[in-house]
Design a protein that fits this description.
The protein is of the alpha+beta class. The protein has helices spanning 5-60, 64-75, 99-103, 142-192, 207-253; strands at 80-87, 92-97, 118-127, 130-140. The chain is 67% helix and 14% strand. Helix 1 packs antiparallel against helix 4 (142-192) and helix 4 packs parallel to helix 5 (207-253).
Length: 254
């Protein structure tokens, strides 16, 4: 199958553009996802540790009223879905926050899993090296996930527009180049057909114009060789006629 130069240019530029964009988008998406996850994990662990440190005395004294007030205040923190305090045997001491989030079974979010809607973290309540309980918190990260999804969609749209723009540019460049080469081919065909005045007109100075100059010189050389050939033929015909005359004269004398 014969592919035109324009088609080859479009395919080549398109493949390179797509490969580069895939690599770039993968790197950007991976960076956004990992940086967002690290930030959420850092925030969740920080809140849990501060909460555990602050509530340690109330857990030791079993001041449930203070713990209840504390978890309610913690749950009102922007982005916090729930807060919970349990003792060392896992018995609930106090909890507060979104009811739906509180109904979810607590499972500390693993770094290997996809980012969930509720990011859960735990911190132990430790005094003098003894664990008296733990603090469990959940962060609502739906806004962050929505932001990541929106950013991905916009990035994909930009990538599609860029690929289409590159394709249009390559089509235009290929069309312009093929048009110039087609003009050269027509000039060569006219020269071969006997039109000695056929020349290539190139308005720009580049590699294609250099090729056009070489073709013009080749056409001139071809015309010169053709004229020289015609001159030789005429000369041979004259010599042949002269030879016939000489032979005829010799025959008459004999």
């Amino acid at each position: 199958m014969k592919l035109s130069l324009r088609t080859q240019a479009v395919i080549g530029i398109g493949v390179i553009e797509v490969v580069m964009l895939v690599v770039l988008l993968y790197s950007v998406f991976h960076f956004i996802h990992s940086s967002t996850r690290e930030e959420v994990d850092r925030r969740a662990q920080s809140i849990a540790r501060i909460f555990a440190s602050t509530s340690a005395d109330d857990v030791l004294s079993l001041d449930l009223g203070s713990l209840k007030s504390f978890v309610n205040a913690a749950a009102l923190t922007p982005g916090t879905a729930f807060a919970r305090v349990v003792d060392y045997e896992g018995r609930l001491l106090a909890e507060g926050g979104n009811r739906e989030a509180l109904m979810l079974p607590f499972e500390e979010t693993s770094a290997l899993k996809e980012l969930p809607n509720i990011y859960m973290a735990r911190a132990d309540i430790v005094k003098a090296g003894t664990v008296y309980g733990s603090v469990e918190i959940g962060l609502d990260v739906r806004k962050q996930k929505l932001g990541i999804s929106t950013l991905k969609d916009r990035s994909l749209m930009i990538a599609i527009v860029e690929v289409l723009t590159a394709a249009l540019f390559s089509i235009a460049a290929g069309y312009y180049l093929v048009r110039r080469l087609s003009g050269m081919r027509r000039v060569v065909q006219r020269a071969v057909a006997g039109e000695a005045s056929a020349r290539i007109t190139e308005p720009f100075s580049d590699e294609v114009s250099d090729l056009a100059d070489e073709i013009d010189r080749l056409v001139e050389r071809y015309e010169w060789e053709k004229s020289r050939k015609n001159e030789r033929i005429l000369r041979l015909e004259e010599l042949n006629q002269l030879l016939h005359k000489k032979i005829a004269e010799i025959q008459r004398r004999t």
